[in-house]
Structure formats: structure tokens, C-alpha cells
Design goal:
Length: about 240
């Protein structure tokens, strides 16, 4: 599912890029194009246009909580360092303001559950967020550096995958899914390589609602507090103009 979502995002970005290139030739014609007095070209604001971004980096999960295991629980959960990645297609209205749609993946292995006789065998939490973002940028004059901040809201499809998770009385295994509310805030720096491409480094805080997973055949419920992660992302951005 994650690969299909990522591939769809890339395909959408390339289609939009082709459209943007044709539109750009109308709005901002290349030098030497004949002038048409009856239909003057509209000049887009500086920095306006479509862009595509990829990002990847480590993700550090805050300690969570096991809230249900066949009934109410309250046990602290510790996570290993995870991995975050994402892809976004956006439109910059000018060099300061942009909106974008982002999908990604944020996952980590459960390191420990602090409860008597509890064990976790290859147990992972995977998030596939889908978010609408607003990004504010400020290019520093006469440099290649652009600081930015932003935030986004949407949802996250969450998989809980385990080879064995439980205690001496009950054990669950396999993969179950849930969809919950999610939001994020981010900030960072972009470095201009050329008019179309930038490299960047950024920080992202990502949080979700509380997922629950029901295991057959007895509808055994496993629930967690929503994850809270801190990620450092290395990004590549390509402008379509």
C-alpha cells in the first residue's frame, strides 16, 4: 500500500509538471517569442508555480502508552529510533506562500512495554500520513538560503504489525489497521542549487490520534495513545518553472 501511494504521488507530480511547463510558456513566454498586442501575456508573481519534494531521515518517537489489551490498560511503551519519509506536490503563490499535499511513511519498532510478563516480538507501528500543508518561506536576499516554517492537518493510516505481542494470558500476531486524525508542524532551510532545484534540511513534529486494532476471531482489541515523533529530514525539491 505504501509503495502504491508513493508511486501515485510521483505520477501526479510528473503530470502536473508537464501541464505547468505548457502553462508557463503561455504566462511567461521565452525570450524572442513574438509579441501579440491584442493578447498580452500575464506575468506570474516571482516564485509562483508548481513544485515536487522528497524527504527522508531518522524519526525519534516519544514514549507512548498501551491503552487497551483486551480491556483498559495503562502501560508505558518505548520505541526504537524509526525512519520518516515523504513526498509532496505543492503550488507556490509567490516566493513567500505555498500550499501542498503530502503523503509519507513514519514507522518504528516497539522496544519495550513496561508491564509484568509482557513481551514484544518484532512489533512495529507504521504511519502513512496524508496531509494538506501551508508553508511560509522567506528567501534571504543575495544568498542561496531560504528559511521556512509550516503546518499541516489530515489523517494517518496506521498499521500495527507483530509476530507476537502480549503476556502469559493473551497474545496477538499479524497486521491490523486503523485510520486516525493527524497533524504536523515543520521548519527548516532550503539551499538553492539552481533555478529549479534545492536541497534542504528540516525538523518535523508529527502527531496522531489514538489508534486501536481488533484481532479476530474474538475481536480482541489492542489500543495505543497516538504517536508523537520528532524527525530530521533531508529534502530535495524540484520546481516546474
Amino acid at each position: 500500500m505504501k509503495q502504491r501511494n508513493f508511486s501515485a504521488c510521483v505520477a501526479l507530480a510528473l503530470c502536473l509538471g508537464a501541464f505547468a511547463t505548457r502553462a508557463q510558456n503561455y504566462y511567461n513566454p521565452p525570450q524572442g517569442a513574438p509579441a501579440v498586442a491584442q493578447a498580452p501575456y500575464y506575468q506570474l508573481p516571482e516564485g509562483a508555480g508548481l513544485y515536487f519534494r522528497l524527504g527522508v531521515g531518522p524519526s525519534f518517537f516519544e514514549n507512548g502508552q498501551l491503552t487497551q489489551f483486551g480491556g483498559p490498560r495503562s502501560s508505558q511503551v518505548e520505541y526504537q529510533t524509526g525512519l520518516a519519509s515523504g513526498a509532496a506536490v505543492g503550488y507556490a503563490f509567490n516566493k513567500y506562500i505555498a500550499t501542498e499535499f503530502e503523503i509519507g511513511a513514519v514507522g518504528a519498532e516497539i522496544k519495550d512495554v513496561q508491564a509484568p510478563n509482557f513481551f514484544s516480538d518484532n512489533s512495529y507501528i507504521y504511519n502513512v500520513p496524508f496531509l494538506a500543508n501551508v508553508r511560509l518561506s522567506y528567501p534571504i536576499p543575495h544568498t542561496i538560503v531560504t528559511p521556512y516554517i509550516g503546518a499541516g492537518v489530515g489523517g494517518s493510516a496506521i498499521d500495527f504489525n507483530t509476530d507476537g505481542f502480549g503476556n502469559n494470558s493473551d497474545v496477538v500476531s499479524g497486521t491490523e489497521s486503523d485510520v486516525v486524525f493527524a497533524w504536523q508542524a515543520f521548519a527548516g532551510l532550503r539551499f538553492q542549487l539552481n533555478p529549479q532545484m534545492t536541497l534542504g534540511i528540516g525538523y518535523k513534529y508529527f502527531a496522531t490520534g489514538d489508534p486501536s486494532f481488533t484481532y479476530p476471531p474474538d475481536n480482541f482489541t489492542v489500543g495505543f495513545k497516538g504517536v508523537k515523533t520528532h524527525s530530521v529530514l533531508f529534502t530535495f525539491e524540484w520546481k516546474f518553472w
